[in-house]
Each structure stands twice: as C-alpha cells, then as structure tokens.
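debug: dumping io for the single-chain case to check the tokenizer round-trip. Nothing else runs in this session.
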Amino acid sequence: MPARRERWVDVVRGCCAIAVVLHHATALSAADGWSHAWTDAVDGMLAPLRMPLLMTISGLVLGGALRRPFVSFAVRRAQTLVWPYLLWSMVVLAATGSFVPDAIVRVPTTAPTYLWFLQFLAVFAVTAWFLRRVPRTALIAVAALSVVVSSFVPDTHRADRFTYLLGFFLLGVAIRGWRPARGRALLGRLVGGTATAVLLVATTSHAVRYEAAWAPLVATAVVTLVLSARTATRTARRSAGRRTSVVDALERLGRNAIVPYVTHLVSVLGSLALIGLVDQQRTWPAPIVIASASTSALMIAAALVSVRHRRLVAALFEWPSAAPRARGRRADHAPGVT
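debug: decoded output
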C-alpha cells in the first residue's frame, strides 16, 4: 500500500472497535444477569475474527513506521501504546474494585485487565521492526510458525494467545502493499467467503478462539475481509459521489480507536449499573441492555474524540509531551498507527 494513509483502513479499525465494545457489553451484561441465547451466539461467531482482524490491520498500517530509526520508532510506540496502557490499567482496576497492590504490580508484566492487547501491540511492533528486512514470503512463514507454536506453549500469562496473535500481526505487515490481480482477487474472495461461512457455522457447536487448528480458515477469512473492506469503502464513496456519513463515522472512530478501546469498559460498567437500578429483577431483554450499554460507550468515546485536541484530554491517550501535537492535525494514534 502507498505510504499515504488510506481511509478504508480506519473504517476497518472502526468496525473492530465496535466489535470489541459489543463483546464486552455482551459478556458483562450476561455476568450481571441479562443474557440471551442468540446474543451469546452472535458474540461467539465474532470471537474467531475479532482480535485476529484487529492485529492484522494493526500490522498492516505499521509498515511506513518501520523505516524509522529504532529509538524514534520505540519512543513513538511508548507514547501511543505503553502510556495509555499503564494509565488506563490503573483506571480500570479502580473502576472494578481491583486497585490492590497485587494487581498493580502485575500491570507492567502480566496485564491484569482487558487492556492486555495494547501490551501485545507494543511488543509486536518492536518485533516487526527487527523483522522489517525479511522478505514477504519468509515473513508469512514466520507468522505461520508463530501460530503453530501457540499450540505448544502454556497458557500462563496468555503466552499461547500472545504467539497466536503475533502471527496475525506479522501477517498484516507482510500483506502491506499486496494487491492480487483481478482474477485472483475474485477467486480469493470466493475462497475467503467459503472459509468465513465454514468458520461461522463451526462456532455454533465449538468455541473457536486462539486455536492453531482453525488458523488457516481464520487467516483466509481475515485477509478476505480486509480486501473486501478496501473495495467496499472505495465503491461506497464513488457511488455516493461525496463523503457518506456512515463511512465517515467509522473512519473517525477507527482513526481514534485508542479512545473507545481504553474507555469503553468503564462506560459499559456504568451503564449496566444504572440499568440495574431500574431493572432490578433483570427482566429487560438482553439485546436492549447490550445495545444501550454499547451505544453509551461509543457516544462517550465520540465525545472524547471531539475534544481530543485539548491538551488535558489528549494526555489521556498519548504521553503528555507528545499530546499537544494533536492540535491542528489528524488524531491518528490508534493502535497500530505509524
């Protein structure tokens, strides 16, 4: 892909952010007494693709940054990934009543909160920098090896998940700039669509998540989704003849994906607490509860995005010494940004 940032990438990242918010809204509402078979089934269907797609797209947009000197590259990852990870880990621990010494000391190493993926992304990015000169074919082989290894490492401290998702991150780095010929693209979408269908059907009877045996289907589906999203986004803009509101909203959310990623859990918990005061018998339909909690989380994230140019707000999502630069330019510090 060209060095210029492409809007379709942010659209995909916006979709990934929404998927993560919906997942936590579904899981937390079920834990609090609101559950429905089909909402759980939908969440299970998205499980195999949610994080692999996020990691693949994060690796894909990293390409241009890999040309930077290591110190500059590493400092940038620390500013945009490590800082919000450390800050919001403390916020989440406090919000969930887990702000105790044992959990606090684990933050730098074993990620006691759902923000483990930011920790992963920082390490993945550094790994990709050291592999930046590896040819595409060899890099795909390394990615595949990482996924295979995930089957043999223990699940202690999410080590199996780490090696599994590292493979998808490196896959994203490898496919940057890849544009299949038209005939191959059509065949690829057919194969990818079939793989996606098989994967979704499989989730109805088996929990498919972070399993190397399913990785070929997951990778095929993820690459197909990425290529299809690129085509669909461009087609939508051409057919509309102007910027479309839905695409624009997803693009803006994806460009600032770090905001919903780190804030949504606290927002969802707050929404569920308020709903619980009204529906103490847990009689409200789960889809209504999930939609309400998810919508409130996304609305709060959108409000924060709208004022992210302000120094104090920017510092919530990027190291303060770099945050003032957000004024007067596109806020593009979402996970995986160059």
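debug: round-trip ok. The CA atoms of residues 82 and 119 lie 7 Å apart.
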